[in-house]
Amino acid sequence: xxxxxxIKYPLLSWYDLNKRxxxxxxxxxxxxxxxxxxxxxxxxxxxxxVSAAIKYFKNFIEKWPNIELLASASEDEIINAWAGLGxxxxxxxxxxxxxxxxxxxxxxxxxxxxxLKKLPGIGDYTSAAIMxxxxxxxxxxxxxxxxxxxxxxxxxxxxxxxxNKKMVRDIVFQLTSGNRPGDVLQSLMDVGxxxxxxxxxxxxxxxxxxxxxxxxxxxxxxxxxxxxxxxRGEKIGTLYLITRRDGAYLLRKRPSKGLxxxxxxxxxxxxxxxxxxxxxxxxxKSNNLHYSELGVIKHTFSHFYLTLxxxxxxxxxxxxxxxxxxxxxxxxxxxxxxFHKYGFSSLMKKAMQYI
Length: 355
Ligand code: SF4
What we know:
Elements: H1 2-18, H2 35-45, H3 50-63, H4 67-71, H5 75-82, H6 89-104, H7 113-117, H8 124-135, H9 144-153, H10 161-175, H11 181-194, H12 213-217, E1 233-244, E2 249-253, E3 264-265, E4 272-273, H13 280-288, E5 292-300, E6 304-315, E7 331-334, H14 346-351
Parallel strand pairs: 1-6
Antiparallel strand pairs: 1-4, 2-3, 2-7, 5-6
Helix pairs in contact: 1-11, 2-3, 2-8, 8-11, 9-10, 9-11
């Protein structure tokens, strides 16, 4: 425990002087952070960088300053506010969480990790982070920054990755015992982000320099030990920018569940796995007959690369006579000046450059 205190106190002293000024870190009473803001920020930060999340967070809190107001929002409104942030299931789950907390807990945040874990989209990490950051409770919350700092600090280099992860969680749990558990977690996050980053370490200004075993052993670049990279597949498809006489574009809403769920898109073909297609050019040409070719956009998802051929057409004849390659049932027309009212993903925003 003495050894951990000799890490904890320099860390907290450094944090008091150097912590990042983040909008979810504004205290409500000088001691505790607002659990609602901690929840929104932690859900946004699952799979999103701090710099990308800040603008969305501010906009979100301006629209819905408390959990009751969020609970009364519609799914479309939430998806619109989330558009461009990706992983839209997070937004839908956040809305479900707000409804449960507002209705079942009368707006009072559950301060029990087992109750938090039962909320939609709140897993082990997020529940533990909320317990420490919002309620000052001991926890073993470990994000990528914390994992990197602790792994380097203790030179964890077992080839058994689960063992390393468990060691990191155990160390964090001990470090967050006693006073200021939330600040301990956030100081580790800040050291990981500002000083001990994945590519560059500025050990000379690190509050942990004197204790760092990786630095002593000169093995920083090898830690944390990484698992094998999963290779991403490739998919292709066609996106149709269909415009009407008055300049309106044909749009549709994606199903609520699944990739980009609930966002609005220009209609298109299904995305096909390139491994299943013998001749990609021929495949695209056969889909794109009768349309003007406008260009190509590329997008990277966590598990595949996507290439979309963008084609366009102006419909002069009656909509009913339009031979559409997709069902028009769920489609609707929107003028470009009204686009801001709809939740487009960053993929669709790339396609808009061809409008
Ligand atoms: S001394 Fe260097 S490697 Fe060690 S925790 Fe600090 S920045 Fe990271």
